[in-house]
Amino acid sequence: MQRISNSKLLFAAGALVIVSLSRFLPHWPNFTALGATAIFSGAVLFRNRFISILLPLTILFLSDLIINNVVYASFYDSFKWFTPGALYIYGGIMVMTLLGERFAKNQKVTGILTSIGAGTIAFFLLTNFGAWLANPMYPQTLNGLIASYTAGLPFLASAAAANLIYTGVLFGAFYLAKNKIPALQEVRVKS
After folding, report:
1. For 33, which of 6, 19, 21, 158 could close a Cys bridge (C-beta 3.0–4.6 Å)?
2. Residue 14 belongs to some domain of the structure
3. Whole-model pTM?
């Protein structure tokens, strides 16, 4: 079993708090650090794929519990464990984590940018496909699917900007922390 350093856990916990807060602060739609955390988690935090995927999904689940049952409680008849369309949203976050692992594990700018671009597009395609399937306002036709994707374009632009900015913040903070925390200097790139 892989041992995880206390410094790495502390950094992950700090990232969890920051990312969770980004969902509660006033922001443009989809302009949160969740996608960036998925990419960062896949690229850097844990060599264990299960843990890398679990971290952003846990952030999403816990923050959704609060958002759905406190912030938007008046829109639901009862307690909501999952957001409508959660299967596609969680799937998109899992894909982003795997893309972070695949492309950004070397922690080079080109790999990070590739994972941001591919992850943002994959999330957009999955979640808008789910919206098309589940939302009666979109007919179950090719035109309905195109309408769903067209309606999602402003969200795509906002998510792309957020993923670019927050991924830069997370990787930047990690590099700064590596210089200050000796245990993080020993963190090797995932192989």
Report:
1. 19
2. yes
3. 0.83
